[in-house]
Write a structure and sequence with these properties.
The complex is a heterodimer of chains A (about 140) and B (about 650). Chain A is mainly α and about 140 residues long. Chain A has two domains: about 90 residues; about 50 residues. Chain A is built from three helices and no strands. The two termini of chain A are about 70 Å apart. Chain B has three domains: about 80 residues, no CATH class; about 200 residues, no CATH class; about 190 residues, no CATH class. Chain B is built from 16 helices and 20 strands. Chain B is rod-shaped and about 230 Å long. With about 650 residues, chain B is of the alpha+beta class. The chains are: A mainly alpha (about 140), B alpha+beta (about 650).
């Protein structure tokens, strides 16, 4: 029961973390892309020789591209996490499902009861006749 | 002073003319006094920029300066006081000296060519053309683009795989389905479900936790061992993207086996069946819904058995109940035991389970098993559904009667009575008892109906009955003479006793012994015969002279009394006597009065005395024509009537 009380807070934190994850990932995508574009411009004077510079740029671009991919996959993970969270904590829909299920089962039950009752009536009538016939016959 | 330098010439000599300091108005020029030697040296030395000159020059200069310094060392004392203007020069010189020393050392080492080799250094940096740089950049961008594309491709393929290749819906949809049917919650990184009946009112200690995981991960780990058969992996893949892990004690199939057995004869075979039921064939490819349902069933059976075992130990029965292993034995009726067993196999194969108990001698009672389930569910229901109104300040649970106990000032006895509830075991024993009572009653009635052909005994079972009470209506009638006479009987079959309501409204209580019912029915058959004969006589116009239901004459009957009646013909010259005995059947005797031929004797002199009645002669009924007793009687009466 103490779990339940602390739940809202932790849930709030969880939702916040989802939001920050989303922002971080999008930001990381954007920043990395900007950096790649900046690198493509390539106007900087440094003491390094140009070949080294080129190699470094290539490497940096690769890393940044990989970062973008990572952010994208992280977003996918986020989506799946949010889905899971929604599924597990969407109590209204769960309640709805339960109500629907119980309704379904109730109708089924009523149906079965009705069928059983009619079956019982039929069987009782038939049984009476059969009993009558059986006990009145000589071949017992 | 020697000057071999070509860059800086240091002249120590004063210029020819002194600098003019001032020109007076009268035109006389006042000259500055010429610089002393040391003054001029300092002046010139300050002009030297050591950093700008190249190494050789520096060396020369320093050499020079060294010399100068040396030369001037004698005059240093004179300049001690004016050290400040020379300080920078001194420090510069010293650093220069250091550099020169290092250079000299390096050169010395380089000359030796043993430790150090000097290589020519390319002075010019490689001139990269702008096009090359552009190409390099292009390549870098292409590489980056490639990384992005492969990443996007991976995402796309995974998405496509989920959407297209899988026949089953993806994990989240499955999870949603699961959530709609089962209780789930997230605990840190895993999803934990609960399949216990807690929410439905169960108070069983064992928890029904299960874990939900994604199937792919499991497949990856589990597929290598089962790789020889690729079909299996395919099957599991198409099954579900969701995997449910149930604790080992809830795996497999369980059911409560209810056996009713006579004496001890079947105990051994039952045990064997329990042990040898179902070979352990693990079948993890079951759909999660079935798996969870099976696990829930296991939990339910365990709770049920637990409850029953607890009650069996606690209950104070005249013949104590036995709890051995996973079997409970309770005596229902003398010589008849109810055995309730918990069959739990860790296999998920249901077919094996169902075929295994089949060969057992005393077969499993499904009805009682079902009612056991029903009873526990009722307990669950009672735990959650308390009777209204719910008090705001009192604990929930006690019955309405107990709330009223205070205001009504109930005493201890009453309160104790209120708290007494029937346990599950008691209830099921009652049901079993009733089951046996019913079976026995059925058997007795059927055998009597088979044995006794003459009056027809037809029994009609009431369709409306409860697990502990049922009712049968018995009609004793004679074929062809239903309208003349019928004897109805109603028997209420209870748990341990029978209640018979007779034709005349008498109520008879009987115990569970079937013989009592049998005797009762036979008595009623007798009564029926006598009454039927009387009724027939009325329709035939015969006179009903008298009857006795409990005849004190004749041989003593083992059960009941013989009954008899006397019938007189319409014109009174014939008398039929009927005697019915439950054991030996019906005797019919006929008497003529007066006899058709009269011979006067010494004792009976006149014919009129013959009217008093004559000797009874037995009628051999079995030789008579007629389908049954009443028919024979009818024929007899008819023949006697026509004769007269």
């Amino acid at each position: 029961m103490s779990m339940n009380r602390s739940l809202p807070q932790s849930k709030e934190a969880l939702l916040k973390s989802y939001r920050t994850r989303l922002k971080d990932d999008v930001k990381s995508m954007l920043e990395n892309f900007e950096e790649i574009v900046k690198l493509a411009k390539g106007e900087h004077d440094t003491q390094l020789s140009r070949m080294t510079r080129c190699e470094q740029d290539t490497y940096e671009m690769h890393v940044r591209a990989a970062n973008i991919v990572r952010a994208g996959e992280s977003l996918m993970k986020l989506v799946s996490d949010i889905k899971q969270y929604l599924i597990l904590n969407d109590f209204p829909s769960v309640n709805e499902a339960i109500t629907q299920n119980s309704k379904l089962f109730r109708t089924k039950q009523a149906e079965c009861d009705q069928k059983l009752m009619s079956l019982r009536d039929d069987m009782a009538a038939d049984l009476y006749d059969l009993e009558e016939e059986y006990y009145n016959s000589i071949n017992k | 002073m020697s000057y071999n330098s070509n860059s800086v010439n240091i002249s120590v000599e004063a210029p020819i003319e002194n600098q003019i300091q001032e020109i007076t108005y009268d035109g006389t020029e006042i000259y500055q006094p010429p610089l002393t030697l040391s003054e001029s040296l300092a002046k010139f030395a300050q002009k030297i920029d050591f950093s700008k000159s190249n190494e050789l020059d520096i060396k020369k200069d320093t050499d020079e300066a060294f010399e100068d310094n040396k030369s001037d060392s004698d005059s240093k004392d004179a300049f001690q006081s004016s050290l400040w203007p020379w300080d920078s020069v001194r420090s510069k010189l010293r650093s220069a000296l250091q550099e020169v020393c290092v250079l000299a050392d390096v050169l010395a080492i380089a000359k030796e060519k043993r430790y150090l080799v000097l290589d020519p250094v390319q002075q010019e940096a490689v001139e990269t053309k702008p096009m090359v740089q552009i190409y390099a950049r292009k390549k870098a961008l292409a590489g980056a683009a490639n990384v992005l594309l492969t990443g996007a491709e991976r995402l796309k393929t995974s998405q496509n795989e989920i959407l297209r290749n899988r026949q089953t819906p993806d994990f989240h949809i499955e999870l949603l389905r699961l959530r709609q049917n089962w209780r789930l919650k997230k605990v840190s990184n895993s999803i934990i479900g609960d399949l216990s009946y807690r929410t439905a009112g169960s108070k069983f200690f064992q928890s029904g936790m299960f874990e939900v995981t994604k199937a792919e991960e499991e497949e990856k780990t589990s597929s290598p061992p089962s790789s020889p058969a690729p079909g299996i992996a395919q099957v599991s893949k198409s099954n579900s993207s969701l995997r449910v892990t149930v604790p080992s004690e809830l795996q497999g199939v369980a059911y409560i086996e209810v056996l009713c057995q006579k004496d001890q004869e079947d105990l051994c075979s039952v045990n064997l069946n329990l042990l040898g039921s179902g070979p352990p064939t693990a079948n993890p490819e079951v759909h999660w819904q079935q798996k969870l349902e099976a696990a829930q069933n296991v939990l339910f059976c365990k709770e049920l058995f637990n409850q029953l075992a607890k009650e069996a130990v606690q209950l104070q029965a005249p013949i104590p109940h036995m709890v051995v292993g996973n079997q409970i034995m309770a005596t229902v009726l003398p010589g008849i035991q109810l055995v309730i067993g918990l069959c739990h196999s860790a296999t998920a194969d249901k077919k094996n389970q169902q075929t295994a108990p089949a060969p057992s001698k005393s077969d499993h009672d499904h009805v009682l098993e079902h009612s056991l389930h029903q009873l526990l569910r009722e307990v669950h229901h009672k735990n959650t559904h308390h009777p209204f109104p719910h008090p705001s300040s009192a604990p929930l649970g006690p019955s309405k009667k107990r709330y009223l106990a205070g205001p009504m000032a109930a005493d201890r006895h009453e309160l104790l009575e209120m708290t007494h509830t029937e346990t599950l075991l008691e209830q099921i024993i009652k049901q079993a008892q009733h089951f046996f009572m019913r079976m026995r009653t059925e058997y007795v009635l059927d055998t009597i109906a088979k044995e006794v052909k003459d009056p027809l005994i037809s029994s009609h079972w009431n369709t409306l009955n409860s697990p502990t009470q049922s009712c049968v209506k018995i009609n004793i009638s004679t074929h062809g003479y239903d309208a003349v006479c019928r004897t109805p009987l109603v028997i209420h079959v209870g748990e341990k006793s029978l209640k018979c309501i007779c034709r005349d409204g008498k109520v008879m209580h009987m115990s569970y012994e079937p013989q009592e019912l049998r005797d009762l029915i036979f008595c009623h058959i007798n009564q029926h015969q006598i009454l039927a004969v009387q009724a027939l006589a009325k329709t035939m116009g015969w006179q009903f002279l008298g009857n006795s239901n409990h005849l004190g004459l004749g041989s003593v009957e083992p059960l009941g009394n013989a009954s008899s009646c006397l019938l007189g013909s319409p014109n009174g010259d014939r008398v039929i006597a009927v005697r019915c005995e439950p054991q030996s059947g019906v005797q019919v005797s006929v008497a003529h009065s007066p006899r058709t031929d009269f011979f006067p004797s010494r004792l009976v002199t006149e014919r009129k005395w013959e009217h008093l009645g004559g000797q009874f002669r037995d009628v051999r009924l079995e030789k008579m024509e007629g389908r049954n007793f009443l028919h024979k009687m009818e024929l007899l009466m008819a023949s006697l009537t026509s004769n007269s």
